[in-house]
Amino acid sequence: MTDGKEHIEPALVRAWVTETVRTLGEARARIDSANVFPVADADTGTNMLLTVTEGARAVSALPDGEPTDTVLVAFARGALLGARGNSGVILSEFLRGFAGAVTFADQPVGSLRVATRFEAAARASYAAVAAPVPGTILTAASGGASAARAAADAGADLTGVVVAARDGSHRAMLRSPSELEVLSRAGVLDAGAYGLVLVLDALCRVLGADGLDEAGLEAEAAARGGSPGALPGAGGHAADPADPVMSLAGGTMDAMATLTTDPSVDREAEPSPAVGPGDLAQAAAPADGGTASVGLDGEFEVMFVVEAGVGDALRTVSLETDGPDLADALRSALQEVGDSVVVVGDGVWQAHVHTDDPGRAVAAARQVAAGRAGLRQVCVRHLATQVAARGVHEGPSGTAPHPDQQVPAHGVVTITSAPGLVPDLARSGAVVLLAADRAPEPEEVLRVAVDTSARLVTVLPGSAAAAAAARAAALLVEPGAGDLQAVEVLDAPTDLHVVAALAAAQLVEEGQAEAMRAALAEVRAVQVAADGSLVRPALEELLRPDDEVLTIMPGRRVDPLVIDVVVAIARQRVPGIEVVVLDSGRDHADLELGAE
């Protein structure tokens, strides 16, 4: 599938895309089960699969006859917009670097050009991460790039260079437990690094090369001084030779959760000239010499797309003048509010951060992008709640249980334009889509529905426009959308309806959807300017003698004394009524009132 000069043809790229999706699809569950860093939430395989699936969808939309670079760019851009989690975002940037590499006239042979692409992919991946950590997908990318360049310089053909890249990434993956303590303690290889190895192995196979398989792994272990009949298992003991070890050729990894490196394996990192000065381990080492932080590095995961033409951002973004500065500024701003910061893209950016304050993260990004670009597809998950929903817990070796048995039957998506509500909505178990600048698109609603990891998702839209988008999203559900099978949209026309529905769902262990419907039927809501002559008649019309709860959601410009007046009026009309005050985070002087 290469021409006489060994250029990568468009048909080969399309085949690679298809094989990558197939391979990650088969390996997804085992990658998930080995996911312990940066958060042990058992979703790395799922995130990487969803990321490349969106890239494949973008490629399938291209007409036949498009050149190689166009197909590569479509794959990368689709992956960027559909990226999930740390590993998915970094993988999308790897693909973008590979697609956008600049080759030169003195590199007429495909092997040299593809080596340049691997180097660019590694550099882009490394640069996207605010605080790189060794023993991860970044190390695998760097190891692959170094091996590809060495093979090209030695005269290898294009297939030989790709195989060298795959093997270099594979060797770096095998070292991951020696470079990242949390992996060593759990007895696993890095899940993101393994996903990258699978992506490169898929390219090897469409080029006609042999895929890595169990026999090859055993031979490598023997060559390094290990037992030829088995690879080491968790805790430093040898695995049972009768057990399957790992099969890359079939796109599976049947025992990755117990696979670690042999003690005889060289634990010194390969030099990484492809990613610039310094090496990954040195660059990522904490200043105090301690180990890298692991576990929940923030209460919430926040992801969003930064793009020109969103909200009030009308000026066209120039990559040459805005691109690098904007991306770097976003990384710096997000580092001030959280960890696991990754920003990828060029002209359109995907950002990821773990933080205790999602509103502050969004505000910081808006400040950076002001006048140049706006935010969309702002998705917020409460990490601990989402982990619990999947039934993830640490076993004796620190690994998660098999994810096939963790898919929740039911998930909830809330859509809100009130930044102040986001933390509590997410803590209630919903995946939150913050639509503060404009109504969401159906594709954005579908994305957050998939992000619940559930089969059936209930959407609480919070506005008429969001409800329309959610109903349109329900029609887009198809195979390939994660575990999602159906989307149901409830009649929740205001944020106060959303709050009441989620509160009702928290009170029952089963039948949450029915509880939400019942609560929604009881809620009445009104929005009124914080003016005494308007508030009293609005309350008199809203409240009923049998109401139990009044919810007040003021804008940021409402005088606190007005809220005291509202509470006094409410308790005068309905003695004993419970009053709840919520911060909307909206910059206006209106009151939103809800009674039930």
Describe this structure as you would to a colleague:
The chain is of the alpha/beta class and 596 residues long. The protein is 46% helix and 13% strand. The chain contains 21 helices and 12 strands. The protein has helices at 10-33, 44-60, 68-81, 85-100, 110-128, 137-153, 158-179, 181-186, 191-206, 214-223, 280-284, 319-335, 358-369, 383-389, 422-427, 442-451, 464-474, 495-505, 512-522, 532-542, 560-573, and strands at residues 300-307, 338-345, 348-355, 374-382, 410-416, 431-434, 456-460, 486-489, 524-529, 549-554, 578-581, 590-595. Strands 2-3-1-4-6-5-7-8 form an 8-stranded mixed sheet, with helices on both faces. Strands 9-12-10-11 form a 4-stranded mixed sheet, with helices on one face. α21 (560-573) links the parallel β10 and β11. α3 (68-81) runs antiparallel to α4. The protein is elongated, with a radius of gyration of 26 Å. The termini are far apart. The model is unreliable at 1-5, 104-109, 214-295, 312-321 and 392-405 (pLDDT under 50).
Tally of DSSP β-strands: 12
* Proportion of residues in extended strands: 5-15%
* Main sheet: strands, sense, barrel: 8 strands, mixed
Structural class: alpha/beta
Number of helices: 21
Entry keywords:
alpha/beta; 46% helix; 4-stranded mixed sheet; elongated; 596 residues
